[in-house]
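Exercise 7. Predict the structure of LOW QUALITY PROTEIN: melatonin receptor type 1B from Python bivittatus.
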Amino acid sequence: NVFVVSLALADLVVALYPYPLILVALFHNGWSLGETHCKASGFVMGLSVIGSIFNITAIAINRYCYVCHSFAYNKVYSWWNTMLYVCLIWVLTVVATVPNFFVGSLKYDHRIYSCTFTQTASSCYTITVVVIHFILPITIVSFCYLRIWILVIRVRKKVKSELKLKLKPSDFRNFLTMFVVFVIFAFCWAPLNLIGLAVAINPSEIAPKIPEWLFVVSYFMAYFNSCLNAIIYGLLNQNFRKEYKQILMSLWTPALFFQNTSKAGTEIQTSKPSPALNNNDQTHTNTL
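Solution. The predicted structure, encoded as tokens:
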């Protein structure tokens, strides 16, 4: 839950500062807010983008440990360790974004009416960004979810009937939700990253050949991803649907909101590690 909140924060950041400035640029048909706001909005947008993929990667690792190494999960993901991991995610996000100021890659792009990362500023830095922001996280997340899928398939097909160790339906639904979040992220961000990688290889020749419409579509497709996560949660997770409904009802009846909040404070839910099969515990099953 802490990682999901951190991911939501990364998605929300762009709506609080960069997007309103983009609207101003649209109304004025150009950037009129000065260089400081341009650099700042580009930096915040970078924090949101890199923070999102780092949080998605952390969630995948968390799900991998929870399902495939459940007996060690509580030790690895204690409350303080989890908060430390979240802080580390944002420290790495800032470290990955700050170099933009040194290579001069945060500039206004008239095609998208926003100050953002310029792919032609530095070929080496663009390739580094694509590797750190896209290729490496996608590889890690793919590995984690692949191992989870393999375990789920083995549990369903080969586990002995006398064993009670099964993946709970709620655990599987949570895993499926985050897996869909990852797939949609990869789909939305792949075009822009592939364009950036192609431009970085030979900026002078390839950059002029990229159609303007293709870049604009890939750009807004990538940043539209920040709006999709909440929709995915609502479609695939019953708890989110219930809370969405409660929030909407509370907007009409504020008294109901405070009443439900007071009730929630008296209800304490405990979470236990998933009884999923642990691939390190071969004494309990012959499936791994």
